Amino acid sequence: MEEINVQELGENIVGVLKSIYDPEIPVDIYELGLIYDVFVNEDYDVKILMTLTSPNCPVAETLPREVEEKVRAMENVKGVEVELTFDPAWSKDLMSEEAKLELGML
C-alpha cells in the first residue's frame, strides 16, 4: 500500500464521489451539490457530510450506503462515516455550473 498524504486522499475520494450518480438525475452527486464536506484526518479516517435532494428521496437508504461502501473500498482509507443532513436543505443553487449545463439550466 502506497502512502499518500491527506490532501491527496481527499482528492481521490472526490474522484470516487464523482462516479456515484443520483438515479433520478443524470449528474454525479458531487456536481449536484449533495456532498457538503469531506474530512480526512491524519489516521485516514473519513467523514462525509452529505444531503439528498429531498428528505423523501427514494434513494435515502441506498445512496449514503453506496457512498460509504465505495469510499471504504479505497486504498488507504481506514474508516468511513457518512452523516446525512438536511440543514441547510439542498437547493439548485448548490449545483456546479457543469451540472446546471448538463441539465439545461444555463
TrEMBL record:
Domain MIP18 family-like residue range list: 11-83
Domain of life the protein comes from: Bacteria
Pfam family, one: FeS_assembly_P
Cross-referenced InterPro entries: Fe-S_Maturation_MIP18 (IPR052339), FSCA_dom_sf (IPR034904), MIP18-like (IPR002744)
Protein name stated in the entry: FeS assembly SUF system protein
Lineage of the species this protein comes from: Bacteria, Pseudomonadati, Bacteroidota, Flavobacteriia, Flavobacteriales
